[in-house]
Amino acid sequence: MLHKWGAAQRCAARNESAKSNKQAIRPCVARLSVRSALSSRQIRCSAIEQSAAPTLSRASSNGSSSGVVAELDEKQEAEQQAVAADPVLAYNLEKNDWTASSLSVVVLGASGDLAKKKIFPALFSLYYEGLLPENFQVFGYARSKMTDAEFRDMITSTLTCRVNARERCAEAQERFLKRCFYQAGPYDEPGGFQALSTRLGEQEAVKPRANRMFFLSIPPNVFLSATGNAADHARSKSGWTRVIVEKPFGRDSASSAELGRGLAQHLAEDEIYRIDHYLGKELIENLTVLRFSNRVFEPLWSRQYIRNVQIIFSENFGTEGRGGYFDQYGIIRDVIQNHLLQIVALFAMEQPVSLDAEDIRNEKVKVLRSMKVVAPEDVVMGQYRARGKLPGYLDDKTVPEGSLTPTFAAIAMFINNHRWDGVPFLFKAGKALHKRYAEIRVQFRHVPGNLYRDKQGADPDAACNELVIRIQPKEAIYLKINNKVPGLGLRLEQTRLDLQYQQQYQVELPDAYERLLLDVVNGDKRLFIRYDELQAAWDLYTPVLHELERSQAAPELYPYGSRGPLGAHYLAARHNVRWGDLADDADDE
Ligand SMILES: NC(=O)C1=CN([C@@H]2O[C@H](COP(=O)(O)OP(=O)(O)OC[C@H]3O[C@@H](n4cnc5c(N)ncnc54)[C@H](OP(=O)(O)O)[C@@H]3O)[C@@H](O)[C@H]2O)C=CC1
Ligand SMILES: O=C1O[C@H](COP(=O)(O)O)[C@@H](O)[C@H](O)[C@H]1O
């Protein structure tokens, strides 16, 4: 895992220096035992371990850190005692050889919504699972004044235990809270960050290598100043520094490039982790597994068999309370240009050379660069209005009067490459709709010369195969097939080959932020967005966004709790498509 990745780097560096000094090169081999019951993620990590170097004890045998080794020996006994009293630590240490390193996670904007809703709970879950190093601490940083105790009180209520793994959870929470500290300070001045760095140093003192991870959970207006101050005044001097940047990554190609240039003044690209939490969702991570490990799907995965692909995001709540942010961005920038487009990139890419981050991202960026720039006639926008007691978008006091910002959009996109030419990729995303769900629908072509044409009812479209990947809730993968209704007659009906995660796996799925935070700890960038991907994504949307703003195009109003504006159906029909979620709604209800 991360520390082994670091170990691998150190080993490689040692060998590089050995090479130049004409000394013997030693193999980079791990000496760890790994628990037998590993998750697939852990197995992936253990694969890294195979090529990783042993950590400090061996790295230091080149003579440069013998003092450190002596110090470590002294610490070892104390550590063993601590481990004996702490099963989480024991488990953690068994899998992680962080003997030489510490990890500090600094959450900037620690008093905010995202930090409380997602980041602290995810960190706790990782801690509970024993996936964080033994020498690990969390620092909250924000302008609000708080003591460590108040900070701990604030986050206590955010920590939850899994339904299926809650043994000694309350004790683990207490131990976790003891590792949480708070530093108040501004984002745009160095003072607070210098104080933060000093306090981090106090906690890290027991380990010679201090790794620091910063999560920018702050509004975009302070992204750059906070990054600059964190990188210049609180960066690690002995280990790595990684900065997680939350969206929005700008508003268009130009502002995104400006943000990119600003970040690059303080950080190297490999220190920047642009998070898109949809990439951390279980079913999205499974997309490549489904495609590339099953012989049955990949041959069908092209214009030859697939008629259209639909990526649907629906929320049954509005933007109440977030109007200030949302009105600046709208649904296209909030969800479609990032989350949904990333899904398409993964869905449509060619098989990567390997599962390495750069190989995957190389393929994703090719898809994005092959896509046709969105045309204004391929966009339908909507805005929810009040229905009964449910408030309309404009009723939110934080939304400017008469705002034209879309809370719903349906968009048709095309990929101009050999595999996908002519296949509509339809996006539909909206707030304040009738249900909350997100899914990918793959509609297959009609069966040519269908023998059973007259046994399937009047609607040939209703007999087409459809593969549905339900991202949330009730994660599922099902394939709609035609089947003979049992009995003496010959009548066909459409039914499902159905994989329901709840039934099949009976485990609580980890939250996307858990997966992604662990990936940052591990230095794994597969699920993070590379700068060229980001720019390619903006280039597809910037012209239409500018045009819609210039023309002051008015969104079609739809009632809160409805299925969205009718225009979405006209758009689909123009591309010879029917939205699959409507038919399934009827089946599911
Ligand atoms: N909330 C969510 O579900 C999601 C959020 N995001 C992104 O994550 C980031 C954080 O989101 P969220 O937690 O909702 O944001 P908040 O509005 O809750 O802001 C986070 C913290 O930043 C500080 N802050 C707020 N406004 C300002 C300002 N104008 N200038 C300086 N500091 C300010 C506040 O802390 P203090 O005053 O104590 O310094 C606040 O607690 C944003 O970039 C957001 O777009 C992305 C996806 C989902
Ligand atoms: O990034 C965002 O995502 C959420 C939806 O995330 P989910 O994991 O709950 O599906 C969305 O509500 C929000 O507007 C957007 O900024």
UniProtKB/TrEMBL annotation:
Per its UniProt record, what Pfam families does this chain match?
G6PD_C, G6PD_N
Q: Which GO terms describe its biological process?
A: glucose metabolic process; pentose-phosphate shunt, oxidative branch
The UniProt similarity line reads: Belongs to the glucose-6-phosphate dehydrogenase family.
Q: What is this protein called?
A: Glucose-6-phosphate 1-dehydrogenase
Any idea of its EC number?
1.1.1.49
Glucose-6-phosphate dehydrogenase C-terminal domain residues are 289-579
Q: Any idea which GO molecular function terms this record carries? A: glucose-6-phosphate dehydrogenase activity; NADP binding
What sequence ranges are listed for the domain Glucose-6-phosphate dehydrogenase NAD-binding?
Answer: 106-286
Family annotation (HAMAP family): G6PD
Q: Which stretches are annotated as coiled coil?
A: none
